[in-house]
Design a protein that fits this description.
globular; 85 residues; mainly alpha
């Protein structure tokens, strides 16, 4: 995850059609806590996948989720950052 979205271009070959799922990811994010609780998902893995997608396809929401996690789920965010390092 790079601070500059332009740098992400050189890190990965992106599939342009994956950007089509941005609206679905936004809906998932709105219901994240309920989805995690109802399905007994590991929140670190759940948000890790969300952040990976958003980092490449919706950087504005990536920043918002990162900020939200840093204030509400700091421990989870640190664990995600350790895993993706």
């Amino acid at each position: 995850m790079n601070g500059n979205p332009k740098d992400n271009e050189k890190n990965m070959d992106r599939k342009s059609n994956l950007k089509d799922y941005t609206s679905i990811f936004k809906e998932i994010i709105k219901e994240a806590n309920k989805i995690i609780d109802d399905n007994k998902y590991n929140s670190v893995e759940f948000y890790g996948i969300i952040l990976c997608y958003l980092n490449y396809y919706d950087y504005d929401n990536f920043s918002n989720i990162l900020e939200e996690l840093s204030t509400k789920k700091t421990k989870d965010l640190y664990e995600i950052l350790l895993i993706i390092q």
